[in-house]
Structures are given as structure tokens and as C-alpha cells.
User: Fold these one by one.
Assistant:
Number 1:
Amino acid sequence: MLVMSHIGYTLGITSQVQKVIPNKPINQLTVAVMSLLPDIVDRMLFVFVLPFAESGRLFAHTILFGVIICIALTTISRHWWIYGLAPILHVILDTPMESPLSWMKRASWPIFGADLQILGVDFKAKSLDIPDQITTRITDLTNAYFEASWWYLSLELGGILILIFFFLTRSRSCSQEKP
Ligand SMILES: [Zn+2]
């Protein structure tokens, strides 16, 4: 999924979860950043660190990563579990971006084997030198955004509409609270 859809759907879902399981008020900016955390981590690894990675979806695009982040945040403060939900939702929301089988294998890594090739890391692959790697991969990632299909763009539009609805209802409830 694209940036606005991740933020929009995650903010929408976490605010609904919070209604069912009462928690301290959530910080929307933190939810937005956490909803993009798997892309931030894996894109950085893909561009700058792992020359053998084949795509920008790596370890942070697994349920295991989301669970580790969720446990770590809950250990720091028990109210932060809701922020730990965001990276897990990211992995689930990325489902339409690839075939169900490859999504399931990667998301559930290492349940069906700890082979790093499941995550698209192939140490036998020919690597580029670092400057070429960085420029080629940044170009690939940018092109992927601009070459998104109508299906992805409609998902993005859905995320933007949720964000507009979310902030309109929030500003209305804030103005009602004022004396
Ligand atoms: Zn992603």
C-alpha cells in the first residue's frame, strides 16, 4: 500500500479499536509514523544496508517484527500497545500488493523456515557497488510510487477520505467540548 492509505486505514482502525478497548487518548502523529515503520525500516535496509536484498519488503514486513515492537512498547508503557498494533496492521494492509502465497510466506516468516530467501535476501545475488546500489534502488522505489495502478490509487484515495473524515469529526468534537 501507499503512504496515505497506510496512515488513513491505520488511524481509522486504531481509533475504532480504542472505542472497544478503552485506552489513553492516542497521539495521531505517533500512529502515523508507526503505520509506516515497516516501510521506513525495510526501505532503509534495501537502499543503504543490504546489497543482496531483492525488494523493499524485508524483516520489518513480518508479523514477528510487529509482535516484537508491540511487546517492546508495552514493556515501556502498557498504554502503548495500540502503537505496536500499527506495524502489524501495516503488514496486513500490504496484502493486496503481492500474491497471497508470497505475502503469507513473508508475513509468517520464520514459521515455514528461517531461510532469508523467503524475505527476498539472496546472498548469491550479484551486488552493485554502493553508489550504484543507492541510486538504482531510490529510482526503483520512486518509480514504483509513480507507476502505481488504478487499484492502488483507489486504495490511496480511500485512505485520504478516511483521514479527511477522521479530522473533520475530531475537530467537530473538539469544538463541542469548548464552553
Ligand atoms: Zn509496506
Note: The longest helix spans residues 150-177.
Number 2:
Amino acid sequence: MTKTKKLIITGAVLLCAVALLCVMLFLPSSEGRIVEEIAPPQKVSLRIRAVGDNLIHSPIYNSCKTPDGFNFDGLYENIKPYLSVADIAAINQETIFVEDVAALSGYPAFGTPPEVGESVVRAGFNLITHATNHTYDKGYNALMHTMKFWSQKDVMVLGINGSAEKQQKIDIWEKDGLKIALLNFTYGLNGYRLPADKKYLVNIIDRSEENAQLIKNAEQSADMTVVFLHFGTEYTHVPTSSQKQDVEFFTENGADVIIGTHPHVVQPVAEHICENGNKSLVFYSLGNFVSNQGGKEKILGAMADVTISKENGRTYVEKYDMLPLVTHAQDKKYSAYMLCDYTDEMAKKHTRCPNLSVEALQTLFEKIKGIEVY
Ligand SMILES: [Zn+2]
């Protein structure tokens, strides 16, 4: 081998070594790369649990009197453990809060002690749907008082608005990048009229261009849109054609999940498919949550349980269920229970529903779930 050849080979070996060193120094460590490759796609899930009408009849607030006011904790204490697993725990606050004890009243124009709201918060509810047919039972001042009450709590309130701007603002619940738009409307106000210059106070279901635009805005600003509708015909288990038309309207404009209240009885869950191909999951009615109404149809309520997930940029309803619950009334005391915690011993003592049994409630619930909507 000549001297020149030796030099060329030595040079080449040296160059290779330097190149290898450079590769080792400047490439990301293999450990780093493995972590990147095997990291699972990020998935975010949000669970919603929602109950029906919190309907505070006068026997209920009378049963919750204390020496210095009211305490409603007992109404919700047996449901509380079932709310803590949810990110969003929603309740339909059917009645409005009044400042003055003299304005308290039951059916037909309800005025409710604000202490109900204190207990609702202590139970763990953090989403209050307030657009109901009783929202304007006590007029403007009570509505403003109710809004002020909630503004001091760490909850989201839907369906009532202090200004036109607030009505147009889409409420969004965000969890780790998953955004859920939340809206609430009622079919009407029991004949009460909102002041002509304050139509924004309560969201009313009408199939108007304004509402269509509101839902479209919600759809654009979030991954999923959940709409709470206070609608339907009282004491009817089968959804009406009017409910289905409302569902069609909200779904075609972008609602993905619809949760209904108002009929005082439970109605089934169904998927709605629109003419334009849009789809939604619809809980037509969750029935009563707390009330003084009697009879097994009206003491049986339901909890909607919906898990929404976002994965790889896709958002979908991962699972859902509807769970039965019951308002127990005994010795002028009221408390809501999940049906799975309710016993025949308690059922026998129900003062608003004679000859009650757990099986009767279970059978009724299964029958309702089996009703074919379409
Ligand atoms: Zn109602």
C-alpha cells in the first residue's frame, strides 16, 4: 500500500467517525423518540348527569322550615353521591326565587325560597337550567333577584339573561380542550308576557331565524352542542309531534344532544335523524326530580348520563344511559333517591302513592324506555 493510499483510508475512517459522532450528538435521543411514538392519542372525556324538574310546591318548602329560615339539603342528600362522578351536574330549576317570605307560594304561580338554591349548590349541581314555564310567575323583580342569587355562586345558569348581549353569548363548558356549548329554552311562560323591551330575559322555543342562528353559532364555537328544552305535554309518556318538530329544528341547526323536561313524567330516549342528515341524541323528558305530585308516574323521574369524548380531533357521544329515580314523600318529608337505593319498605310508606313497590316503578320505567318514538 502506498503512503498516499494509507492517508486516504485514514482520512476516510476519521470522516466516518466524525459523521457518526455528529449523528449521535444531534439526533433526538432514542428514548425521546420512543415516548413520542408510543404515547396514546390524547383523549378527553366529559360526563354530564342531568335531572328533571325541581318543582317546589308549598308542602315542600313548609316541610323544610327551620327555626331561622329553610334548609332543603334533605331533598338532595341521597342523590349527592351520584353527582360527584360527573363534570356537569345539571338540574332544571322549575321555580323562581323570591326575596320576601311573604311572596312564597306554590302552584299555580310559584315563589320559592332562595335557600333551595343554597342546597342545590351544596348537593353538587353546577349547571342550572332556568328557562321554564314558571320563570316569570313572579315577574321581573323575582327574576332579577334569582339572577343575582346565582351570580354569587360558582355555577353556570342557562336560559335566563340580564341583557340582550348575554342572550347572544354562547355558554361554553371547557375541559382540557373539549368544548361543549350549552343552551336552554322553554316553550312558553304560562301566559305571562315578557316586557316588550326585555324579550331577552327568558329564552323561548320558537323556530325562528334568530334561534337557528344561535344554535349555528354554538355549533361553530364548540365541539358539541347540548340543548336543554322545557317542552312537551304534561303527563304524556309519548313525545308529541310538536316536541319532534322542535327536536328537528334544533338538530338541523346543530344540536347534538337534547335533554327535555316539563311533562312531569319520564319519556324515552331516542336518536333523531333530520331530513338534512344531522343527528342528535334526545332524552325527551326526565320527569320530575322533586315535587309534591302523587302517583307512580309522577314520582318516577330520571337522570340522564352522557359521556362525550374527543379523540384525534373527533368528538362523539361515547356512552349514555337513563337511570330511574324516585321522589320519596313520607310524614311530610321529601327526598329524592336513585331507584337502585329505594326499598319496598320505603315504598310502602310513600304518602303520595299508595300500594307502591320498587318493582312497579321498575316495570313502569322499562315500559317507558321501550316506547317507540318513530
Ligand atoms: Zn314546566
Note: The pocket of zinc ion is lined by residues 94, 132-133, 230, 262 (CB under 6 Å).
